[in-house]
Design a protein that fits this description.
2 copies of one chain form a homodimer.
Chain A lengths: L3 H5 L5 H8 L3 H9 L6 H14 L5 H8 L4 E6 L5 H16 L3 E6 L4 H7 L7 E4 L6 H6 L4 E4 L10 E2 L3 H15 L3 E5 L6 H17 L2 E5 L5 H12 L7 E4 L2 H13 L9 E6 L12 E4 L2 H18 L13 E3 L17
Chain A binds a DNA duplex through helix 3 and helix 5.
Chain lengths: 343, 343
DNA sequence: CTGAAAGCGCTTACAG
DNA sequence: CTGAAAGCGCTTACAG
């Protein structure tokens, strides 16, 4: 199967095909990219020559000539974060089908390197998963750009997001319906836009339902959930339910409860936010607000492609992507007796 | 801060800088990429002109001229798999510092599209995370290529992996030391190289320790772990420990035990394989074999860079990356009494 | 130390 | 329908 002579032959270019077919490079180019412009017989000769030479187009050369990169850049603060994997996959699917490459980079670079990424002629459009970059740099890129999940008002670009406040209300409503009257909200980082909206939604929901809501600080991490669990356990009376601003935080909260000998949901109901891949596999499986990450990624990529193809601007902020609460095993009615003491 | 005139100005090119500085484009090019070749005063004039015009190099043009892409392509069977995130991050870190872009693509494309990826002049080297691609396609790419974690003997490329058999022995040795005498191994997919090596290691370890080893089929998924748990529960006498070929499988095994009213590690000790991010957060935290994914990614990227810079070949298969067992809460000494019956 | 010219591998008005 | 020529924006022998 291996043809050893191939190994030594240099890569054929369009001129080789033209020579083999006895036509000009212009004709080869047309036959390949716009066959309708070329005569039947000529086209056949060109195709034969392509076959014979093993020619494949050099996209880099074509792209330079056409002054485009056929490439999307995804910028995320932490490429290893499992939250982003699904989004990458969705974007790559849409982009790949349209013939665009997908480039990924960490967004937490020193500013000159970061700025360069949007200015080096190797990217047509940008997907931003980080709301904490310098707006001057972001707005300095003259490329179509969308923000996903998180956003920054100072970026001059539309954002594809859920309605985080409404989503948080879903969580609080669920707890209220189960019969909980006193609940805790473990917040995200104080200055984070998602955290602010989720807290606002939780507060609005609690007020509307006449619930007593206690705020505990957090930062989306598992550790902050553990800390919050200890604080919660020290409260008297103990709220019977907790709404954490992220799944990670909820995992930490539950793990610390287990360490303290308290059970979820028997002693306390816990709701998370995001519905990361792992939420359904946790023990107990986590009740949480689903962020449709695949859909957000798909919509973002499609809007970018539309802007690229149509030469149209991206348009304003999109309407929120619908979300929903996924009820699993970590929530239940409040204990009828007072919570069991620490054993 | 926004300079509105910037918005309308077209992107400056090297000729604009040359005109502004009153030198040739060759001189601008040299001043930027090889300042030592240019006179002090000229260099200063060029730098001023760069500043004034806001020039940034067009990498696409430079790359075409230099006949390279300054880009690495990562191919993975499933971009959303959390297993790969850490590897992406490690590769991007190494590549980014060397000025290379990182492109990602799903490797499960129809073959013509897949083949094109390695032939379109937009990639200098390939990182392969999939051992199930057509060897003819893979070997047809005339680019430096490394396989990571998984490998295929038919690919003409080195693989950076752990010694899966030795790693599996670590797991079995641990269970033996805890006092387990009868253990189960839940296998991976029958034709998967990793599964084959892990099983062989488990068998060798069991033989060396004089343990009784029962094999149960699996395929690395959580569902297969659940199925295995039911099979295990039906065995008499029940083995007191299980070594699963993947963490996912172990999560499923444990979840199904919980559903059956059996506790880990009280009723059965469970060991996984991989040490995915979630392993330490599971309840109970999972004892597992650590696959150093960040290091594997780093080593792979570094070897590729070395081959690219030196023009040297990649060399043969690398020696295995060291691994270790991470002991957490899911393993303990076997129950002294016979296992509790299903309640 | 600097410039004129060729060229990376394509595409695309412009003629005919 | 086809070709000669220019050009995408750079870099790099080759001269001087």
């Amino acid at each position: 199967m291996t043809r050893p002579e191939d190994r030594s032959r240099r890569r054929p270019k369009i001129a080789d095909v033209a020579a083999t077919a006895g036509v000009s490079t212009a004709t080869v180019s047309r036959a390949l990219s716009n066959p309708g412009l070329v005569g039947e017989a000529t086209r056949a000769r060109v195709m034969d020559a392509v076959e014979v030479t093993g020619y494949r187009i050099n996209s880099a050369a074509r792209d330079l000539r056409q002054r485009r990169a056929r490439s999307l850049l995804i910028l995320a603060p932490n490429l290893s974060n499992t939250f982003f994997g699904t989004i990458f996959a969705a974007i790559q699917k849409v982009a790949g089908e349209a013939g665009l490459a997908v480039q990924i980079s960490d967004s937490r670079l020193e500013s000159s390197r970061l700025a360069t990424l949007g200015h080096d002629g190797r990217t047509d459009a940008i997907v931003l998963l980080d709301g904490a970059l310098d707006p001057e740099i972001v707005n300095g890129w003259r490329l179509p750009l969308v923000q996903l999940c998180e956003w920054n008002e100072d970026y001059d670009a539309p954002a594809i997001t859920i309605d985080n406040a409404a989503a948080a209300r879903l969580a609080v409503d669920h707890l209220a319906q189960l019969g909980h009257r006193r609940i805790v909200h473990v917040e995200g980082p104080p200055d984070n836009v998602l955290a602010i909206h989720r807290r606002a939604g939780a507060q609005a929901g609690a007020t509307a339902r006449g619930l007593e809501l206690t705020l505990l600080p957090g930062d989306f991490t598992m550790e902050s959930g553990e800390t919050a669990a200890r604080r919660w356990a020290a409260m008297t009376p103990r709220p019977t339910a907790v709404f954490c601003a992220s799944d990670e935080c909820a995992f930490g909260f539950i793990a610390e409860c287990a360490a303290m000998g308290l059970a979820v949901p028997a002693d306390v109901s816990v709701v998370g936010f995001d519905d990361v891949d792992f939420a359904g596999r946790f023990l107990p499986a986590l009740t949480t607000v689903h962020q449709p990450r695949a859909e957000i990624g798909r919509i973002g990529a499609e809007r970018l492609l539309a802007a690229l193809e149509g030469g149209r601007p991206l348009g304003p902020r999109a309407e929120p992507v619908p979300t929903r609460l996924v009820v699993r095993a970590s929530t239940a009615a409040p204990p009828t007796t007072s919570p069991r003491p620490k054993q």
